[in-house]
Amino acid sequence: MKAGVGIRALALAYPETVRTNDYFRTNHAQVLAEAQQKSLSRVWSPHKTTESARDIFNEEMAPFLDDPFRGTVERRVLGPGESVYSLELRAAREALAAAAMTPGDVDLLLCTSLLPQAVGIGDAAFLAKDLGLRGTAWNFESACSGALVGLQMACSLVRSGEYRNALVVVGCSYSQNTMETDSLGWTCGDGAAAFLVSSVPEGSGVLGFKSLHTAETCGSLYYEMVAEADQAPRMFLKANPQAGKSLKVVSESSLRASCEGAAQAAGVSLEQIDFFVFNTPLAWYASFCAKTLGVSLERTINTFPLYANVGPVLMPTNLYHAAQAGRIKPGDLVLLYTIGSVSSAGAAVLRWGEVALGPSPVAEPPPVGAGHWRPGAR
């Protein structure tokens, strides 16, 4: 049996500013009136891409097609004096505090964000400096699968004996990289997460991984430098007209391969999994994943109504709230699944242990269950 390695502590950091749909109704009424011709509606509209008798993705998306926000309810966005880096630093400090560890206990820091404050360099070395770490610090990138890839790298390096304690930090600043006048940004928010990976009792921790590339989505989403009037040029997220079709195809093909592969690597079946944590970049994504795998919605969680799409922070956010609500308990088998465009998709199976949690970023936890809600009016 492999030496036990897993998550020892998990923390989230989100901005205080909450932006509801009324913000866009008030400030961008013309864009809203033309919503069906804008990016969001073009990307997430029905695409016939499968020969199977049942198209679960389109079925689960259908109730949201009359909603110009595609099911988005709230987003937490950076306010004055905040940055993705400040969120990353706060999450890292709270993960250390939850684990009762000092910076001197951490000998490896792994960091990824969309996009980092230090574009072209990454935030890892800055975090190491401000945290007072003495070990090494690396940047990496795998889009919305960043947290799972960071977990896999950290577990492998700790299990090898090369490092003892690894701190993984992920951040997202979509509100800074999407235009308010582009409806694609209406589904996006900001946030950060951090988790500590260390040795855990044998038989617990991460038991198996499976990862796949998502090269089929190359070109679907991309960043473009744009100079707005009287402002410095910034990188903005864009989508090509075929983005929805290619992302849907990958969603259908990678989900089962990743989850079944991770279960096989762990020596278990999907039927033995107690709880499933899918990343939720769309209002209907958890429900799509659950129905594709034949999993009860009561064995999943969907925090999209609270946070919208926060890229690599999605999976640790869902995992945190599932643990906080007591929906996963020590000894449970948990499956994590993430998918990122122009990067990777993957899954991990772990036996949940005694994981310390940082303070909750929201006063009211997300509702129990996933996929039960439908478009709101807020």
UniProtKB/TrEMBL annotation:
InterPro entries reported for this sequence: ACP_syn_III_C, ACP_syn_III_N, Thiolase-like
Keywords, ordered alphabetically: Acyltransferase, Transferase
Coiled-coil segments: none
Keyword Protease: no
Keyword check for Ligase: no
Domain Beta-ketoacyl-[acyl-carrier-protein] synthase III C-terminal: 264-352
Source organism, top-level taxon: Bacteria
Domain Beta-ketoacyl-[acyl-carrier-protein] synthase III N-terminal positions: 141-210
Protein name per UniProt: 3-oxoacyl-ACP synthase
